[in-house]
Every structure is written in C-alpha cells, then in structure tokens.
Design brief:
The complex is a heterodimer of chains A (about 200) and B (about 100). By secondary structure, chain A is of the alpha+beta class. Helix content of chain A is about 20%, strand content about 30%. Chain B has a five-stranded mixed beta sheet with strand order 2-1-7-4-5. Chain B has a two-stranded antiparallel sheet with strand order 3-6.
C-alpha cells in the first residue's frame, strides 16, 4: 500500500503529495469529491516543448521534499479558508517529466463554481511562487540544462534595484526582484486573481 | 536527497538545490558547527569562489526546515547553526 515513490500529507479535507509516478487526474479529483460540493475545478499543468522559442528536450524536477510538502499544505490551508472550499488537493511530479505530460495537478471543490474557479487559480499561483520545487530544462546539444526560476523568468539574472522602483512588497519568501511579466511562467500568462476582482 | 552525509558531533548538514547544487557539484555536505548564520555565505564563498554573487544572493536559507534571515553584515549577531542542524540553500523556485 505504501508507495515509496510518493510522499504525501493527508488531512480530512486537504491532500498534498510529491511523486515520481505519472499523474492521474481522476484520483486527485476523487480526493476533493463531496456531496457538499457543486463544483470541482481541476488544473493540470503540462510541460511545454519550448522556452522563449528554444526547443526543450525534456524537463526534470527536483525538490526539498519535507519543506515543499509543508509549503503546499500551508497554501492549501490558506486558500481553503479564504474561499470556504469543501476540499483541496495538490500533487507535483518530480524527476524527468517528458514533454506534454502533467507536472502538477490541483483540484478544489466548493459548493458553488465561482469560489472553486478563483481558488484553483490562486492555489496554482501561490504554488508557483513558493513551493520548493525546481525545474531544469534540457535544451539538448551543447547548451545543456538550465535551472528555471519562476520569479525571474531566467536563472542567474540579477535586476538592479533602480529598475525596480515600482516593485511589489516583499512576499513571505523575501523580496521580489522585479515585478512579473506576462507569460514568463510555465503555464501561460500570469493572471493574479487578487487583481482581477474589480472586473468580475 | 537520497544520500545525506551523516552528522556526528560538531557538524551540520547543508543541502544544495538547483543552481546551488550545480555550482558546488554537490547535493549536500557536512560543515563544522557551531557557525553563525551571518558567516555562512562567506564560508561558502571561500570554498566555491563566485558562488555568493552568482547564486547565493538570490537564495533563501532554511535551518531545520524553517526560513531564517541572513544578516548582510557578517559580524552581526544572529542565529547560530548548531551541530546536527539541517541547513538548506533555497534558490528561486520553479514549481508548476
């Protein structure tokens, strides 16, 4: 019953896990399924074959596993409380992930769909900002692998402070080096739900 | 981390991830304790020339899984890493 390739924390209405196995949407949806919920929103992040036009051969994820699980659980707690979710589940794949396969699944359930939509998006953005998982993109050829950074859009790039006068307030993981750009993260343009509320 | 160096008396384990692991060519190693957190980055710079500006300045630090402040002044008093502690260099994350 114990899968050595998966590390997880299971609470009554919260589930977080890191696994070297392929991800399967159905069991994660079932983790949050409830007669109290009228909606389940599932996000599946899949690995792209390019970064900024450069062809990516494969991706590899590594993690500080006990720290990452705690961060995932803290995000689940906060998002669940904020949006009164029935349940929330989050699983991230580690090791080599072939292009086109899922690297992360997030499922949330709530009595009504609006809260589930918002919570799902917010949980992903929080996860990409905070969870101690690192992605290495192998470009093949002489270039080798590059450790990606969600925050900077590129690794090893330092931004001078004077370019940064309008930078957002420091987050819990220290100062943000510069404001985010659309599209710099792995799953398309970043949409911060906290800035979208006036449009809804 | 599958192979973690064992810490006996007088040493702590430091874990390197992502760019920190690439720069040191290590996943982990054992360093002498006690060591003030304020002196850690200078010690690593001595061992791995250039690591401070190329890697560490954009990293965070955990001690026993909790994030701690890294004082910018090496002579400042602050947290002291003890024998048996697990310290980790946390580069900017890229989950998702």
């Amino acid at each position: 019953m114990v899968n050595m390739d998966t590390k997880e924390i299971v609470e009554e209405t919260r589930y977080v896990a890191l696994t070297h196995d392929t991800l399967d949407a159905k069991p994660i949806m079932d983790r949050v399924r409830s007669p109290k919920a009228g909606a389940i929103v599932l996000f599946a992040g899949t690995t792209r074959d390019n970064f900024a036009g450069k062809s990516v051969k494969e991706l590899q994820y590594t993690s500080y596993e006990p720290r990452a699980l705690q961060s995932m659980l803290a995000i689940c707690n906060a998002v669940q409380e904020k949006h009164s979710l029935t349940a929330i589940a989050m699983i991230h794949r580690l090791g080599v992930v072939p292009v086109g396969e899922e690297s992360i699944l997030i499922a949330v359930s709530s009595p009504h769909r609006q809260a589930a939509w918002r919570a799902g998006e917010e949980a992903l953005e929080e996860c990409k900002e905070k969870v101690e998982v690192w992605k290495k993109e192998e470009f093949g050829g002489e270039e080798g692998g590059v450790w990606r950074a969600n925050r900077d859009g590129a690794v090893g790039v330092r931004i001078d402070n004077d370019q940064n006068l309008n930078s957002p307030a420091p987050g819990p993981h220290g100062p943000v080096l510069r404001p985010g750009r659309l599209g710099e993260r792995g799953h398309g343009a970043v949409v911060n739900p906290r800035n979208q509320n006036q449009n809804s | 981390m599958t192979t973690k160096p064992s810490t006996s008396d007088g040493s702590f384990t430091i874990l390197y991830f992502a760019s920190a692991s690439s720069y040191t060519s290590k996943d982990a190693e054992v360093l002498a304790a006690p060591l003030p957190v304020a002196k850690l980055f200078d010690l690593l710079e001595e061992k791995y020339t250039g690591i401070k500006s190329k890697v560490l300045e954009s990293c965070l630090l955990t001690v026993n899984l909790e994030y701690v402040d890294v004082p910018s002044d090496a002579s400042s008093t602050g947290l002291v890493i003890k024998a048996g502690d697990e310290v980790a260099i946390i580069p900017p994350v890229s989950s998702g």
